[in-house]
Structure to design on (614 residues):
């Protein structure tokens, strides 16, 4: 691979890291702040991706939507749709405690994926949606990629800043209290059920945004992209490794895991063809091993949650 | 046990009718009417009716498993009662959630401290005050000035409470790192961050050393006299009950056995029987003190 090729690869990787950072930040709101074990990240990602695609892609005969609206509208709609769908899902599933909630949310994400696969009128079934516009898509290839990298990380910075502000506010303190001890939080007058739902919806909206950013980068979406391994579990590993409860940790985890995941592909591709296919499974092994090591030696993650009160003494 | 107003009165009080008659006149702060809490076939609280007058410190005693903590859980809203009604401050609250009861001024502490371990001691207190504007998602963005103002007030109040409890030196520690006794003080401190009318204290003395215990008693008395808090106090430490509580209610097997001043309850043969599980002969009485000592030590362990 020549220098330009490597640079292109780096930009491509940078955009995907940004998208994973958004997913990881969204999950941090749910798990890191509110202690909600959402194992259906892929579902909200999918809703955001498809909604933004449907709002902005050109119409296709025999299908509804395809409104060719501006990308910004699509992104906003993606967040709103993910939030809207999180509301009934949260209403039903948040009654469950941790592990049951995980099972329920996996189920919901699978339902969303299967609906997108089989339904023809909106999502186009297995053929998916193509021709999705990309902001700065008219620029020459390299510049377009670079501009999108900037846009993606711009979103990461905005979301990070907004979440940090929110976490430092009494809202964040209350959420952490609910996470720490639900019974005591209720006894201190916090409406636990409503607040958990609030965090669930907020996190889902950010995941929806990640889906929208992804779909305009790829310019196409098929149900294959909604792989629970790639979207849900990889994000969980990123958050746990980086440090749940810490937004910088969530971003750091996305960077580390995606660099390992992605660059190991570069390495394995250079191996002879007969081992290259098998070597790919080593990547999964390495990620799993890292998770084990972190949980054993640094269970709070690389950047643990700090305390949030200004030292005043 | 129909809806007749006096039908719930305990038989034990019939011989102290004048006192009861006097109490009927004032409006009770808390009124339990034939409260039942059953877990499957087991009735942990079995038809409890009682009244708590404003300004009092009511002691709730009884052997282990008498249903005292379960009763607290029902009053605070952690459990929905199987039957019966709860009235608080002139309002029926039987079906309200825990947090709704809190906002009406009904605040509890826990037998085993329920601090928020990864929040600092100061944060543990600052999280308590009801209706903080900053707890609304949008308020932080649209009315940041108001949020900051309230936050400053809350912080100052928390600092004052910590000074009162003599916990200032640990205010930036994570609450999970406090000692058992300090956590008990923190539990009490949380009630001071509210506009509580009635505070349910579940064994505030368990696991607390003697020196701290006297301090705790003193704090409770100050809160009662100067802050106008009404208390119900579950406690095995009889010294503390004697010093603080009037009236004292003794429960056994989910029922109210007797209510009266400390001496009356202490000397009632049924109370001794409840603690020992059989009819008590005078010579056994000496052994009771010993048993209680054991119980307290158990609590300390």
């Amino acid at each position: 691979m020549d220098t330009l090729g490597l640079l292109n690869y780096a930009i491509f990787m940078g955009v995907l890291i940004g998208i994973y950072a958004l997913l990881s930040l969204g999950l941090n709101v749910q798990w890191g702040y509110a202690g909600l074990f959402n194992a259906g990240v892929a579902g909200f990602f999918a809703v955001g991706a498809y909604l933004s695609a449907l709002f902005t892609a050109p119409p296709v005969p025999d299908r509804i939507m395809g409104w060719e609206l501006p990308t910004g509208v699509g992104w906003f709609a993606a967040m709103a749709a993910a939030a809207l769908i999180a509301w009934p899902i949260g209403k039903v599933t948040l009654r469950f405690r941790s592990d049951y909630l995980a099972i329920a949310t996996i189920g919901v994400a699978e339902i969303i994926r299967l609906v997108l696969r089989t339904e023809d009128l909106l999502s186009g079934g297995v053929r998916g949606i193509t021709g999705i516009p990309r902001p700065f898509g008219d620029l020459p290839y390299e510049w377009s990629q670079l501009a999108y990298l900037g846009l993606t990380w711009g979103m990461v910075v905005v979301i990070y800043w907004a979440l940090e502000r929110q976490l430092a506010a009494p809202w964040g303190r209350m959420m952490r209290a609910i996470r720490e001890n639900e019974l005591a939080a209720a006894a201190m007058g916090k409406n636990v059920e409503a607040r958990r739902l609030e965090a669930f919806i907020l996190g889902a909206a950010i995941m929806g945004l990640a889906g929208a950013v992804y779909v305009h980068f790829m310019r196409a979406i098929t149900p294959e992209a909604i792989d629970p391994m790639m979207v849900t579990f990889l994000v969980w590993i990123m958050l746990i490794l980086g440090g749940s409860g810490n937004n910088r940790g969530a971003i750091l985890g996305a960077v580390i895991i995606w660099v390992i995941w992605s660059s190991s592909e570069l390495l394995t591709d250079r191996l002879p063809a007969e081992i290259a296919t098998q070597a790919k499974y080593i990547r999964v092994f390495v990620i799993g091993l890292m998770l084990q090591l972190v949980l054993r030696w640094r269970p709070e993650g690389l950047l643990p949650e700090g305390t949030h009160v200004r030292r005043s003494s | 046990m129909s809806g007749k107003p006096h039908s719930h009165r305990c038989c034990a009080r019939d011989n102290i009718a004048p006192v009861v008659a006097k109490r009927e006149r004032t409006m009770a702060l808390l009124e339990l009417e034939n409260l039942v809490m059953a877990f499957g076939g087991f009735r942990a609280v079995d038809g409890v009716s009682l009244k708590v007058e404003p300004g009092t410190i009511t002691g709730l005693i009884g052997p282990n498993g008498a249903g005292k903590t379960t009763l607290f859980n029902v009053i605070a809203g952690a459990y929905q009662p199987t039957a019966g009604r709860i009235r608080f401050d002139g309002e029926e609250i039987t079906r309200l959630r825990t947090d709704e009861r809190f906002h009406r001024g009904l605040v509890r502490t826990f037998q085993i401290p329920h601090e928020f371990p990864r929040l600092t001691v100061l944060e543990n207190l600052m999280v308590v005050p009801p209706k903080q504007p900053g707890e609304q998602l949008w308020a932080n963005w649209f009315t940041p000035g108001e949020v900051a103002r309230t936050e400053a007030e809350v912080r100052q109040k928390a600092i004052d409470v910590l000074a009162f409890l003599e916990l200032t030196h640990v205010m930036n520690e994570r609450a999970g790192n406090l000692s058992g006794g300090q956590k008990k003080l923190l539990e009490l401190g949380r009630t001071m961050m509210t506009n509580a009318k009635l505070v349910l204290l579940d064994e505030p003395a368990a696991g607390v050393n003697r020196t701290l215990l006297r301090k705790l008693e003193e704090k409770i008395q100050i809160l009662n006299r100067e802050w106008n808090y009404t208390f119900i106090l579950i406690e095995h430490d009889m010294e503390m009950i004697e010093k603080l509580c009037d009236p004292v209610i003794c429960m056994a097997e989910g029922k109210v056995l007797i209510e009266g001043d400390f001496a009356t309850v202490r000397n009632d043969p049924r109370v001794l029987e409840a603690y020992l599980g059989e009819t008590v002969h005078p010579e056994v009485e000496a052994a009771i003190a010993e048993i209680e000592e054991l119980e307290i030590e158990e609590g300390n362990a």
Observations:
- Chain A touches chain B at residues 165-166, 169-171, 173-174, 176-177, 180-181, 183-192, 198, 202, 305, 307-309, 311-313 (CB under 8 Å).
- The longest helix of chain A spans residues 3-33.
